[in-house]
């Protein structure tokens, strides 16, 4: 791709796997990302030690490869086993990746943490965008709705919005832009209903959601990523349903 943010020539798209259904949902997401970027898909299984007498790691990696190929036939999988804690391993991997993808189980109780230790580590320190693919209670990936992003005055917001628009194109989804800029025309005239229209394209963004009005993916910047590990529910985030949907964290 020609866009500067998406063409800094990283080596791979990385996905962490552990044999769970949530991880396989992340593999499907990551496979499409890797093919779109023309990069190999690095499938990483973190292990406490190098020993694998029962072949568990081999089975986990083989299943992930099969899932990746079903989702994207031209994907180039690179299965690897790495010794270390998952958070530490994926943080190291982020230094040479275009994106790190990881699965997240559904929250089953109101007092349950919004994210686990591995996602918290990546939210704080990843060197590349992080896709957190949330699974629903029925096992399906929470990715079939609009992609929502906040327009703000924060540094780096253009990168956040850029990636949201890229994902909208790749996934064939509507992108909902929530304008929180201090001096935006929308905030000056809060009583006026506004539809965002790309001039000359004939397309309206934020009006039609192809039958799905819930948020499939929230694309957020560094400030939200920093706050995520200590976030409690409910919260006043402008993206409805955040962070129980899938997340794309953009630190840079």
UniProtKB/TrEMBL annotation:
<dbReference type="Pfam" id="PF00582">
    <property type="entry name" value="Usp"/>
</dbReference>
<dbReference type="InterPro" id="IPR006015">
    <property type="entry name" value="Universal_stress_UspA"/>
</dbReference>
<comment type="similarity">
    <text>Belongs to the universal stress protein A family.</text>
</comment>
<protein>
    <submittedName>
        <fullName>Universal stress protein</fullName>
    </submittedName>
</protein>
<dbReference type="InterPro" id="IPR006016">
    <property type="entry name" value="UspA"/>
</dbReference>
<feature type="domain" description="UspA">
    <location>
        <begin position="11"/>
        <end position="134"/>
    </location>
</feature>
<dbReference type="InterPro" id="IPR014729">
    <property type="entry name" value="Rossmann-like_a/b/a_fold"/>
</dbReference>
């Amino acid at each position: 791709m020609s866009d500067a943010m998406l063409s800094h020539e990283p080596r791979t798209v990385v996905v962490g796997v552990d044999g769970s259904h949530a991880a396989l949902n992340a593999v499907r997401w990551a496979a499409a990302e890797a093919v779109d970027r023309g990069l190999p898909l690095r499938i990483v299984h973190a292990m406490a030690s190098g020993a694998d007498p029962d072949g568990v790691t081999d089975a986990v990696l083989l299943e992930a490869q099969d899932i990746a190929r079903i989702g994207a036939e031209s994907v180039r999988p690179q299965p690897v086993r790495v010794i270390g804690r998952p958070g530490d391993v994926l943080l190291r991997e982020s230094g040479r990746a275009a994106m790190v993808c990881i699965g997240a189980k559904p929250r089953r109780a109101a007092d349950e943490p919004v994210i686990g230790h591995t996602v918290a580590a990546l939210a704080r320190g990843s060197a590349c965008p992080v896709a957190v693919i949330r699974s629903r209670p029925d096992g399906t990936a929470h990715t079939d709705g609009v992609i929502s992003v906040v327009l703000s005055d924060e540094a780096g917001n253009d990168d956040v919005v850029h990636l949201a628009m890229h994902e909208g194109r790749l996934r064939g989804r509507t992108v909902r832009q929530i304008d929180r800029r201090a001096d935006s025309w929308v905030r000056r005239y809060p009583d006026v209903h506004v539809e965002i229209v790309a001039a000359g394209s004939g397309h309206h963004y934020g009006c039609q959601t192809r039958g799905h009005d819930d948020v499939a993916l929230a694309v957020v910047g560094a400030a939200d990523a920093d706050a995520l590990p200590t976030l409690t529910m409910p919260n006043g985030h402008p993206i409805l349903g955040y962070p129980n949907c899938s997340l794309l964290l953009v630190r840079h």
